[in-house]
Amino acid sequence: MKRQPASEGRLVAGLQPVREAIRVHGAALSRVAVDSRELPRLDAVARFARDRGVERIDRLPRRELERLSGGVSHQGVLAWAPALVLAEPAAVLDDPALLALALDGIQDPQNFGALIRSAVGLAGAPVLWGEHASAPLGTATFRASAGAIEHATLCRVRSLTGTLADATGRGAQVVGLDPQAPVRLCDLDLTGPTLLVIGSEHEGLGRAVRRACTAHAQLVPRGPIDSLNASVAAGIALYEAVTQRLRAR
C-alpha cells in the first residue's frame, strides 16, 4: 500500500461525507468543524464526533466554514481525515473474483465521486484510473461520493492502458462500455474476473483504451440519446455483473 502525502488532514465536507468519516475514522480525525448555529442536524454531528472520540470539535461561523471549504458545499460541517490509502494494481488484479471499474478520462469531480459511490454501494468494486487526465482526489470528489470514499478500494495507475493489458495477461476480461457496440452486456459472461471500463460522457473511451479492451458492450439498445451519465452506466453494468454472479452460486 502507499499513502498520499501527509498534511493537516484530508478535508471532507458535507453532512453525509463527514458523518461517514467520523464513523470510519473516529478519533483518528484531527478536527471536526461545525457551524455555530444551534440546529438539530448540526448539533447531532458534533455529538456523534464527541462520542466517537474526536478530540477537537470547533463551532465556527458560516463565513469561516466557507473559507475553509474552498467553495465546496459543506452543509455546515467539515472534517479533517487521515490520508486515503491507495491499493497497488497487482493486489487488485490478482483477486480471482475480480470485479472492478476502470475509469478513462473522467475529469469532473462530481462524476468521479458518483462513480465511486456506485462502485462501493453496488458491488464493493475497486476503482482504477490513470494518473493523467483524471479528476483529482479532492474535497469535491469526496463530497460527491456521499461518504463512499471512506470504504472504497482506490487504485491510481501510471498507465491505464498498461494496467488493462496487465489485467488481460492475468486472465481477466476487460469490457469497454460502448453504446454503439453490437453486443449487449447481459449477453457476456461476467462471472469470471472482469474489469468494466467507463469512458467520459463527452468523448467515450479513448482510442488506446478501446484497443486494450477484450470486448465492447452496450447496456441497452440505443435510445434518443447516445449515452447515459457515467455513474448511471456504471451502476447498471455493476448490477448486471453482480446479478450474474449471484445466479451462478
Notes on the structure:
The longest helix has 19 residues, at 230-248. Helices cover 37% and strands 20% of the residues. The strands form 3 sheets. It has a 6-stranded parallel β-sheet with strand order 9-8-7-11-10-12, sandwiched between helices. The two termini are 31 Å apart. The chain has helices spanning 15-25, 40-51, 62-69, 89-93, 109-123, 139-144, 160-169, 207-212, 230-248, and strands at residues 2-3, 10-13, 31-35, 57-60, 77-81, 85-86, 99-104, 127-130, 154-157, 173-177, 194-199, 215-217. The protein contains 9 helices and 12 strands. By secondary structure, the chain is of the alpha/beta class.
The H/E string reads EEHEHEHEEHEHEHEHEEHEH
- According to CATH, the homologous superfamily of the largest domain is SPOUT methyltransferase, trefoil knot domain
Return the domain count: 2
Largest sheet: 6 strands, parallel
The percent range for strand residues is 15-25%
Low-confidence stretches: 1-6
CATH architectural type of the largest domain: 3-Layer(aba) Sandwich
User: Which percent bin holds the helix content?
Assistant: 25-40%
Structural class category = alpha/beta
Number of E-type strands: 12
Alpha-carbon distance between the termini?
31 Å
Based on CA atoms alone, the radius of gyration comes out at 19 Å
Tell me the strand order in the biggest sheet. 9-8-7-11-10-12
SSE arrangement:
Elements: E1 2-3, E2 10-13, H1 15-25, E3 31-35, H2 40-51, E4 57-60, H3 62-69, E5 77-81, E6 85-86, H4 89-93, E7 99-104, H5 109-123, E8 127-130, H6 139-144, E9 154-157, H7 160-169, E10 173-177, E11 194-199, H8 207-212, E12 215-217, H9 230-248
Parallel strand pairs: 3-4, 7-8, 7-11, 8-9, 10-11, 10-12
Antiparallel strand pairs: 1-6, 2-5, 3-5
Helix pairs in contact: 1-2, 5-9
